[in-house]
Write a sequence for this structure.
């Protein structure tokens, strides 16, 4: 192959005889653009899906096509699987709490911890852009909490959780709450290895949040409708909100509660306990080889 | 903003493949992006342009192939196309669609030198 442009001089043979190519070493080499049939470069990017045909001519350029078929989130998903295996091996029930800022995630967590700390060892990973204020609120309950500050980032990813797991020494058969960055958009696409995403919607936000941010409610396995104690003061149609959530995610279980007043908290804690014990039982059955 | 993470992941995959397959320049990147995937295409282009500087992909062009959303109705068992998650089944009117295609987000092919 020609070392100047890779044009294939000396490689092509017909009936055993080398075929001359047009490349001459004394001429400057110009690679032919793969899409040379289309001269309107400014508009090309608007024509999605016109590429792959492989328009470059063999022998004219050293360009080649590499089929890779890899998921863009492949690296995140590999870390997520590693986290998931770790949780499974230790019987840890991990929940990824997602919502917009101000839905009451941290208050919900503090009150959930108070109710469940006698049943399970508990740990918390907090995600925020800045400050460790949420982790401090959790630590005040006596439960270990690790704060991840994402800086300019808008979500937690599986690698961050993997690193957090190395620092937190989680007990076997424990509950791990991961409070994601308050954001109803980005965290939906990033698997952390959790057992379930739990979406929290508060009644001060408006019934149509599930329609406006469908990705998150589609990704969640449970929806908590928080701040229900405020319903008498608001024009919030609970049935409409749940109906919208079910349009995006048919059959999505919903628990209505008030983290501050305690209504509905028992149903939420029962849901955690039932699912958490199932995870712990799986870990024990793995140990005994059942 | 998560398109920045996606652009960084995209570049990471390209650099890994560049080492494995020994190429030094990427001319074109073909992506398959489902209509229901959590990614805004123009935002991904913007961030990919930002992160690809000084890499094997610094002159790479992004070609995005849209994959249509498809779903199967759990109520009437018909297949249909969907544009959003909050779509009712066009045959029976129920909100009971289960997505079967359109959430993909992957790198299909690279043209390299």
């Amino acid at each position: 192959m020609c070392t100047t442009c890779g044009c294939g001089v000396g490689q092509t043979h017909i009936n055993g005889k080398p075929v001359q190519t047009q490349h001459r070493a004394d001429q400057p080499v110009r690679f032919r653009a793969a899409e040379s049939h289309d001269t309107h470069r400014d508009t090309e990017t608007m024509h999605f899906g016109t590429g792959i045909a492989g328009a470059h001519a063999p022998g004219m350029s050293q360009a080649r096509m590499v089929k890779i078929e890899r998921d863009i989130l492949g690296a995140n998903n590999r870390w997520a699987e590693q986290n998931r295996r770790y949780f499974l091996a230790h019987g840890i029930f991990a929940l990824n709490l997602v919502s917009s800022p101000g839905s009451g995630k941290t208050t919900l967590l503090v009150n959930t911890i108070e109710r469940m700390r006698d049943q399970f060892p508990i740990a918390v990973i907090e995600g925020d852009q800045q400050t460790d204020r949420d982790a401090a609120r959790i630590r005040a309950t006596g439960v270990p909490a690790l704060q991840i500050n994402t800086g300019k980032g808008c979500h937690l990813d599986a690698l961050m959780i993997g690193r957090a797991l190395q620092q937190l020494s989680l007990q076997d058969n424990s509950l791990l709450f991961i409070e994601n960055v308050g954001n109803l958009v980005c965290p939906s696409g990033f698997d952390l290895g959790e057992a379930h995403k739990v979406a929290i919607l508060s009644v001060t936000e408006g019934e149509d949040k599930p329609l406006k941010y469908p990705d998150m409610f589609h990704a969640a396995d449970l929806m908590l409708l928080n701040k229900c104690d405020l319903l008498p003061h608001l024009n919030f149609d609970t049935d409409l909100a749940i109906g919208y959530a079910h349009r995006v995610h048919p059959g999505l279980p919903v628990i209505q509660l008030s983290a501050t007043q305690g209504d509905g908290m028992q149903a939420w804690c029962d849901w955690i306990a039932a699912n958490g014990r199932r995870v712990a039982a799986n870990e024990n059955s793995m140990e005994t080889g059942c | 903003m998560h398109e920045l993470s996606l652009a960084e992941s995209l570049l990471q995959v390209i650099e890994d493949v560049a080492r494995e397959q020994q190429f030094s320049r990427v001319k074109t990147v073909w992506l398959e992006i489902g209509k229901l995937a959590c990614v805004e295409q123009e935002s991904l282009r913007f961030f990919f342009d930002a992160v690809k500087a000084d890499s094997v992909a610094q002159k790479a062009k992004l070609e995005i192939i849209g994959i249509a959303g498809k779903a199967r109705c759990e109520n009437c068992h018909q297949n249909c196309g969907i544009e959003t998650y909050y779509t009712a089944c066009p045959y029976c009117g129920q909100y009971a669609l289960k997505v079967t295609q359109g959430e993909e987000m992957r790198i299909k092919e690279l043209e390299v030198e």
Summary: Chain A touches chain B through 52 residues (CB under 8 Å). Chain A has a mean pLDDT of 81. The CA atoms of residues 5 and 62 of chain A lie 7 Å apart.
